[in-house]
Design goal:
The protein is α/β, with parallel strands linked by helices and 223 residues long. The protein has helices spanning 9-16, 30-40, 48-51, 59-76, 81-95, 107-118, 154-165; strands at 22-23, 78-79, 125-129, 132-136, 139-140, 167-169, 178-179. Helix 4 packs antiparallel against helix 5. The N and C termini lie far apart (54 Å).
Amino acid sequence: PESFPPLRKEEAVRVLRGQMKGIQGHCNSCYMDAALFSLFSCTSVLDSMLFMPFPLCDRNVQGILRDEIVNPLRRTGFVRAGSVMRLREQLTDKGQCSSFTNAEKDPEEFLNLIMQQILGIEPLLKLQSGGREQDCYCYQIFMDQQEDLVVPTVQQLVERSFLSSELKLVEIPSCFIIQMPRFGKEYKMFSKIIPSLELDITDLLLDSPRECCLCGDVATLEC
């Protein structure tokens, strides 16, 4: 089947901006629509999911994901709700969870199911906390209300979340999927979050040389 590269710069604006663009929502699909758009519209870092050899992955799920969602999104900027529903039906069968077709889910649950159980991808992140390592596919930002953060950047949120949870990255990840703080219908911690187009993970890495905030030399102590 024909494949299309991710959209870049002016082409991304031309293809994705306007009415009837993006992934059409239906029956509480917003969590999946947003995740798929973020993972595939403008980046190829996870395109291996689309071409992994059978039988390491589920051919039906891979075909729907590649031919009915990713390629149309990159080609015309629009994906019909029916295509996402077909993916949700397949996930319902494979995940043994009937609510995938009608209920809102946590994006992490969707990513774990499709990446681990269906496509067989190795975990993307290795985290350490309290001397114990854990593998995962994405990182969700957890943090308490910060009075000095009114309109934060992604960089600020990631750093403070890692600090408050005493987390470190064991190694530089090939792909760093970050889920923003949870929002409910009645409460939002932040009205806006500024995307950080580049993310500096130097201070998040385990045993990484850090510079002193006063003199700029390699630090010997960490507060």
